[in-house]
Amino acid sequence: MKTQITIVAFLLVSLHNLFAQNIQQEILIMGTMHTVPKIVKKSYKPMLKFAEKYNPDAIYVESPMANDTISWEYLKEGWSKNYQRFYKLSDSLQRSFNFNKNKFDILSKKAFKNLTTTEIDYLITASAYKRDNGNYELYTYLKKHGITGAKKPTRHEDGDLTYKLALSKNLRVYNMDDQQTNGLYHNAWAKCSKEGVTNGNNAANSKMYKKNYNSSIFPAIFRGLGKHTNKRKSLNQLHTMASFRYVIQDTDGCKEGRKYWDERNMRMAKNIATQVMASGKKKNIVLVGASHVIGLENELKTKYPNLKVILMNAY
Prior knowledge:
The chain is an alpha/beta fold. It has helices at 2-22, 44-54, 69-75, 81-96, 101-108, 117-129, 133-145, 157-169, 182-199, 201-221, 225-229, 232-242, 252-279, 293-303, and strands at residues 26-32, 58-64, 173-177, 283-289, 308-311. The protein is built from 14 helices and 5 strands. A 5-stranded parallel β-sheet has the order 3-2-4-1-5, sandwiched between helices.
């Protein structure tokens, strides 16, 4: 009898594993505009509806990985005041906070709507202790705005899209950003701009920027900015500008900037793919600045062919 039970159990496990292996995991990449002007403050509303309809199993956000010590070494005194404050808080908590893993794991699985204020406070502090910026911001947003999110548009992807989506689907978020060479990228940008004064590069960049901006005016008026931004033509323009592929004359600064941009996208893609494959979740949505979409798509399709990669407007 025991032998029969063992055989049946083995067959069930084998069938489960086989079924899991046959499920193709997919990654839907949605390009965001970060902060939008007041005149088009509701631009993220149609994007939120789209994301909710997609019904993701996991949400990936443009926030540094908790264990990325190289990025945090830069960010603790880097370009973002918010990241500077978060690192200082996290560093302090890692020396003083009495982290209870069992308590954290239990609360992390609890539905957002059932969390008490005290429990939310604990999750905020614990997330900062773990240097998990994405969920620290999510729990802070939940405490401030409640389960339905901000009533008025915040004009930013986090407040109007990312965290509203997370709360509506009862999903914590996954960090996937990489800032290891962001300082070097900005230095290269300044160098490329200085070099481009006389060789036509700056004029070419300005022309492309105006073309991209002008084409977005009409869609933005009718709340179609998100859809327009995620058109392949728009994404290619943004990728071209951010990676210095618009240049007429390829100078040292532009080459350096392109190198750091491409490497950042490569590491971001690795962060996404590694977590997606480890999680086994089927439907994964990536919310990222639109300039990164083409680079991430290329990296994911080239290096992780077993993952199905879809862009927002192609879904």
